[in-house]
Design a protein that fits this description.
By secondary structure, this protein is mainly alpha-helical. It has helices at about 10-25, 35-45, 45-60, 75-90, 95-115, 120-140, 145-155, 160-175, 175-180, 185-205, 205-225, 225-235, and strands at about 65, 70-75. About 70% of the residues lie in helices and about 5% in strands. A hairpin with a 3-residue loop joins strand 1 and strand 2. The termini are far apart. The protein has two domains: about 10-75, Winged helix-like DNA-binding domain superfamily/Winged helix DNA-binding domain (Arc Repressor Mutant, subunit A, Orthogonal Bundle); about 90-235, Up-down Bundle (Four Helix Bundle (Hemerythrin (Met), subunit A)). It is elongated.
Length: about 240
């Protein structure tokens, strides 16, 4: 799967090759990479060059170097697409309000496209996710994962790979705020009601209604999460 490299900055070619193998699922989460000596022999480069490439992959949050135990893949093929995109578009110091505002622009469009392009199997899967979210809420759990799965599936149902990758990047950046939003019982119920409205519109193949339901859903989330921050911006 791997081959010798010839570029002047050889570590970049190593990064590209390993990244592509993760993206294609050849290297899966949990797989151990060959050791430095084997990689240097495969790529026909020094071990220092291999270490530089591994460090770059680690910075991209694709692999993890474990002292005395080797280097392991920690990203799925999906995450391999998202991490570099998120790193190139956003920075840690970016205001979360601004990032969420971008989600408000994009995700209603995603919901409309999902309603227009979804297969019956995908709609059924979306309904199953929502039922699982309801079970988690009823048992007192924080349904962050099922909430995430609901929005991830919508992004996939839109049948636009660029939008899907962008949404995954936004979800990753906003993960902490999304978890905080789902803490209270009232907020959990609001999330479920919003998802029901979105699902109903998609089942009826009503793109405009899906767009509106998503916009209302996100505005409710925003009103809870960023009330204090928005007042601060206005000097209130």
């Amino acid at each position: 799967m791997l081959k010798a490299v010839k570029k002047k900055r050889a570590y970049e070619d190593i990064v590209k090759q390993i990244f592509n193998l993760i993206e294609k699922g050849k290297f899966k989460r949990g797989d151990q990479l060959p050791n430095e000596r084997d990689l240097s022999e495969t790529f026909k480069v020094s071990r220092a060059t291999v270490r530089e490439a591994i460090l770059s992959l680690e910075t991209m949050k694709l692999v993890d170097r474990r002292q005395g135990n080797g280097t392991y893949v920690i990203a799925s093929s999906e995450e391999a697409l998202v991490q570099p995109l998120a790193a190139s578009l956003f920075h840690e110091k970016d205001d979360l309000i601004d990032i969420f505002s971008l989600r408000k622009i994009i995700e209603p469009e995603v919901a409309q496209l999902a309603s227009e392009n979804a297969s019956p199997e995908e709609v059924n899967e979306l309904e199953k996710i929502l039922k699982e979210q309801e079970k988690e809420v009823a048992s007192g759990e924080n349904p962050i994962q099922t909430d995430t799965n609901f929005h991830h599936l919508l992004a996939r149902m839109a049948k636009n790979r660029v939008l899907e990758r962008l949404m995954l990047a936004l979800f990753d950046l906003l993960s902490k705020t999304r978890e905080a939003y789902l803490q209270s019982e009232e907020r959990k119920q609001k999330s479920i009601r919003g998802h029901h409205d979105i699902l109903a519109a998609i089942k009826n193949a009503n793109g405009k209604a899906a767009r509106k339901a998503m916009r209302i859903h996100l505005e409710e989330v925003e009103s809870v999460l960023f009330k204090k921050e928005k007042r601060g911006r206005r000097g209130l």
